[in-house]
Amino acid sequence: MAGRDIQGNNFSLYTNGNRYWNYLLAAPHGDETNVIKALPDEGADITLMAGMSETASYDLFEQAYLNPANLAAMPDYLKTTLADGTVVPLYLTDSVETRGDLDKLVRRGLVSFVEGLLGADAVASLASDTDGKLTPQQAWEEYRRLPARVRQQFLRQVFVYELRQAGRDQNELDSQKEPLNGGYRRGYAAIDTLFRSAAAAGQPVRYARDLPDDWRGSWTGAGDITATRLTARTHQGGDVNVFTPGGGLQVAALGATVPDGYGLVTLASPGQINVFADQDVIVKVRAFCPSSRTPIRWAAIRSCGPPWATSMPVAAPRPCVSPRHRKSWRMRTATSRYTKSPT
Questions:
Q1: Is 337 domain-assigned?
Q2: How many distinct structural domains can be found in the chain?
Q3: Residue 251: what pLDDT?
């Protein structure tokens, strides 16, 4: 975390879990003695944050998006109903989608987060349900006992989930033919809550329905993450998270020669890539999740074009242009695909 910029010419960050890895081959050393028994199987997250001259409003965000005591004030899109009919905050629970023959975890809620930290024995001693899991209320109570930095880790994940869902909601219309749950406003509301300046600290929480049409964020911190070439790679699970609420991200300079293997990379499930930036996002190299998780990128102001949110990097690798038929051609990049008429 930096109060201003994170800058470098050639730097690399890796997390390995409980194995020794060959970084050039992106493969673990193969013999059985490679396992480090004191470490967990899943590797740690990598989180880079620049422009943090102010403190993010974690307590306010927690109150607005997670605290069961605030349930009545939350909009419906932040609530969910359990099997017994109890209504709880959405992010206390997991979400699983069936895709083909597979059940895919698409949202890791507070219950799973806390259980992962406590371990199986502690969970078994606390669980009252017959399925051996913590209830959402139990998870909330245990979460409140965690150190502040651990709680902040989960709150940043909730923030990223809100940005992702805002993009999806923008593409779905409600009965009034308006974007579902406010569309992008839902994401702006999350930004407005977590990244607000000290001058706006006394203002009430605003959800999607409360934001004015000319909303602009109040965050005053400025700072970029800029590298000639950068790699942030998790080998055995773990996310790669980048937050520049007052600046942009450059993973590789446009004129630089970048070796294979550089970029933002997660090599195993459940790792995913999450990028939130206020300004330009220049990738050039890979933003790669082999576990089939789509990287989440949100650029709030520039270089993505209105309405300022996209899953396509600003500067992609050289496109491959191939003729499809006489009146159109298709451009492919590493992370996007679209068709347009020739000019």
A1: no
A2: 2
A3: 92
